[in-house]
Design goal:
Pfam families: Bac_globin (PF01152)
Shape: globular
Structural class: mainly alpha
Cofactor: heme
Protein name: Hemoglobin
GO molecular function: heme binding; metal ion binding; oxygen binding; oxygen carrier activity
Largest sheet: none
Number of helices: 10
Helix content: over 70%
CATH architecture: Orthogonal Bundle
Keywords: Heme, Iron, Metal-binding, Oxygen transport, Transport
Length: 169
Protein backbone atom coordinates (compact mmCIF):
# COMPACT_ATOMS: atom_id res chain seq x y z
CA UNK A 1 0.00 0.00 0.00
CA UNK A 2 1.35 3.42 -0.97
CA UNK A 3 1.93 6.07 1.67
CA UNK A 4 0.20 9.43 1.36
CA UNK A 5 3.54 10.98 0.39
CA UNK A 6 4.04 8.39 -2.37
CA UNK A 7 0.55 9.02 -3.72
CA UNK A 8 1.16 12.76 -3.58
CA UNK A 9 4.36 12.35 -5.60
CA UNK A 10 2.70 10.07 -8.14
CA UNK A 11 -0.40 12.22 -8.62
CA UNK A 12 1.41 15.57 -8.57
CA UNK A 13 4.33 14.48 -10.71
CA UNK A 14 6.65 16.17 -8.18
CA UNK A 15 9.58 14.25 -6.75
CA UNK A 16 9.75 14.53 -2.94
CA UNK A 17 13.20 16.15 -3.21
CA UNK A 18 11.69 18.90 -5.35
CA UNK A 19 8.57 19.16 -3.18
CA UNK A 20 10.67 19.84 -0.10
CA UNK A 21 13.33 22.00 -1.76
CA UNK A 22 11.62 24.86 0.09
CA UNK A 23 13.52 23.62 3.15
CA UNK A 24 16.91 24.29 1.54
CA UNK A 25 16.47 28.07 1.73
CA UNK A 26 14.71 30.16 4.33
CA UNK A 27 12.14 31.67 1.98
CA UNK A 28 10.71 33.85 4.72
CA UNK A 29 14.08 35.55 5.28
CA UNK A 30 14.63 35.79 1.52
CA UNK A 31 11.19 37.15 0.59
CA UNK A 32 9.81 38.82 3.71
CA UNK A 33 6.33 38.83 5.22
CA UNK A 34 4.76 41.14 2.65
CA UNK A 35 5.50 38.72 -0.22
CA UNK A 36 3.44 36.03 1.51
CA UNK A 37 0.61 38.47 2.28
CA UNK A 38 0.61 39.62 -1.36
CA UNK A 39 0.57 36.03 -2.65
CA UNK A 40 -2.27 34.94 -0.37
CA UNK A 41 -4.30 38.07 -1.11
CA UNK A 42 -3.87 37.62 -4.85
CA UNK A 43 -4.74 33.91 -4.56
CA UNK A 44 -7.89 34.38 -2.51
CA UNK A 45 -9.10 37.24 -4.71
CA UNK A 46 -9.03 34.70 -7.53
CA UNK A 47 -10.67 31.95 -5.46
CA UNK A 48 -13.54 34.13 -4.23
CA UNK A 49 -14.08 35.46 -7.78
CA UNK A 50 -13.97 31.97 -9.37
CA UNK A 51 -16.75 31.50 -11.90
CA UNK A 52 -17.42 27.94 -10.70
CA UNK A 53 -19.89 27.85 -7.82
CA UNK A 54 -18.81 24.33 -6.74
CA UNK A 55 -15.27 25.63 -6.17
CA UNK A 56 -16.27 28.87 -4.43
CA UNK A 57 -18.57 26.90 -2.14
CA UNK A 58 -15.59 25.02 -0.68
CA UNK A 59 -14.48 28.32 0.87
CA UNK A 60 -17.91 29.67 1.80
CA UNK A 61 -17.55 29.09 5.55
CA UNK A 62 -14.61 31.51 5.81
CA UNK A 63 -14.38 35.20 5.17
CA UNK A 64 -11.84 36.10 2.54
CA UNK A 65 -9.85 38.04 5.15
CA UNK A 66 -9.64 34.99 7.45
CA UNK A 67 -8.66 32.73 4.56
CA UNK A 68 -5.89 35.12 3.51
CA UNK A 69 -4.54 35.35 7.05
CA UNK A 70 -4.66 31.60 7.66
CA UNK A 71 -2.83 30.93 4.42
CA UNK A 72 -0.08 33.51 4.69
CA UNK A 73 0.55 32.64 8.34
CA UNK A 74 0.86 28.96 7.42
CA UNK A 75 3.17 29.75 4.48
CA UNK A 76 5.36 32.01 6.65
CA UNK A 77 5.65 29.31 9.30
CA UNK A 78 6.29 26.47 6.82
CA UNK A 79 8.86 28.46 4.87
CA UNK A 80 11.14 29.48 7.69
CA UNK A 81 9.39 32.30 9.50
CA UNK A 82 7.92 32.62 12.97
CA UNK A 83 5.14 30.18 13.98
CA UNK A 84 2.35 32.69 13.40
CA UNK A 85 -0.19 30.07 12.41
CA UNK A 86 0.51 27.68 15.30
CA UNK A 87 0.51 30.49 17.85
CA UNK A 88 -2.98 31.49 16.78
CA UNK A 89 -4.60 28.23 15.69
CA UNK A 90 -2.47 25.33 16.98
CA UNK A 91 -0.68 22.68 14.93
CA UNK A 92 -1.39 23.02 11.19
CA UNK A 93 -2.48 19.34 10.85
CA UNK A 94 -3.29 19.88 7.17
CA UNK A 95 -5.29 16.73 6.55
CA UNK A 96 -7.35 17.23 9.69
CA UNK A 97 -8.03 20.90 8.98
CA UNK A 98 -9.10 20.07 5.42
CA UNK A 99 -11.22 17.06 6.46
CA UNK A 100 -14.58 18.92 6.19
CA UNK A 101 -13.91 19.88 2.57
CA UNK A 102 -14.12 17.86 -0.65
CA UNK A 103 -10.41 17.77 -1.51
CA UNK A 104 -10.71 16.00 -4.85
CA UNK A 105 -8.35 15.83 -7.81
CA UNK A 106 -10.60 18.36 -9.57
CA UNK A 107 -10.52 20.75 -6.60
CA UNK A 108 -6.75 20.39 -6.24
CA UNK A 109 -6.25 21.17 -9.92
CA UNK A 110 -8.47 24.26 -9.64
CA UNK A 111 -6.67 25.40 -6.47
CA UNK A 112 -3.31 24.93 -8.18
CA UNK A 113 -4.46 26.86 -11.24
CA UNK A 114 -5.30 29.85 -9.06
CA UNK A 115 -2.04 29.52 -7.10
CA UNK A 116 0.02 29.37 -10.30
CA UNK A 117 -1.75 32.49 -11.59
CA UNK A 118 -1.20 34.24 -8.27
CA UNK A 119 2.50 33.31 -8.26
CA UNK A 120 2.84 34.47 -11.87
CA UNK A 121 1.32 37.84 -11.05
CA UNK A 122 3.26 38.74 -7.90
CA UNK A 123 6.46 40.61 -8.56
CA UNK A 124 8.13 40.33 -5.16
CA UNK A 125 8.96 36.61 -5.46
CA UNK A 126 11.89 35.54 -7.66
CA UNK A 127 11.53 32.75 -10.24
CA UNK A 128 13.59 30.17 -8.31
CA UNK A 129 11.47 30.69 -5.20
CA UNK A 130 8.28 30.50 -7.28
CA UNK A 131 9.38 27.16 -8.72
CA UNK A 132 10.21 25.75 -5.27
CA UNK A 133 6.95 27.02 -3.85
CA UNK A 134 4.84 25.66 -6.70
CA UNK A 135 6.46 22.23 -6.39
CA UNK A 136 5.63 22.26 -2.68
CA UNK A 137 2.06 23.46 -3.34
CA UNK A 138 1.47 20.83 -6.05
CA UNK A 139 2.78 17.99 -3.88
CA UNK A 140 0.87 19.21 -0.82
CA UNK A 141 -2.39 19.60 -2.76
CA UNK A 142 -2.24 15.96 -3.83
CA UNK A 143 -1.14 14.90 -0.34
CA UNK A 144 -4.45 16.39 0.83
CA UNK A 145 -6.31 14.56 -1.96
CA UNK A 146 -4.72 11.29 -0.79
CA UNK A 147 -5.74 12.10 2.77
CA UNK A 148 -9.29 12.84 1.64
CA UNK A 149 -9.50 9.54 -0.23
CA UNK A 150 -8.22 7.69 2.83
CA UNK A 151 -10.86 9.43 4.95
CA UNK A 152 -13.54 8.35 2.50
CA UNK A 153 -12.25 4.76 2.43
CA UNK A 154 -12.25 4.61 6.22
CA UNK A 155 -15.79 5.94 6.38
CA UNK A 156 -17.07 3.45 3.81
CA UNK A 157 -15.21 0.56 5.42
CA UNK A 158 -16.69 1.40 8.81
CA UNK A 159 -20.18 1.57 7.35
CA UNK A 160 -19.69 -1.63 5.34
CA UNK A 161 -18.56 -3.61 8.40
CA UNK A 162 -21.30 -2.13 10.54
CA UNK A 163 -23.89 -3.16 7.94
CA UNK A 164 -22.65 -6.79 8.06
CA UNK A 165 -22.78 -7.12 11.85
CA UNK A 166 -25.74 -8.89 13.36
CA UNK A 167 -28.10 -6.63 15.22
CA UNK A 168 -27.41 -6.33 18.94
CA UNK A 169 -29.98 -8.06 21.12
Amino acid sequence: MQSLQQKASEWSGVDPNDAFAIDETNLFEKLGLQAFINLSTNFYNRVYDDEEEWFRSIFSNSSKEDAIRNQYEFFVQRMGGPPLYSERKGHPALIGRHRPFPVTHKAADRWLQHMQQALDSVTDIDEDSKTKMMNFFRHTAFFLVAGDELKNQNQSVACKHAANKPAAE
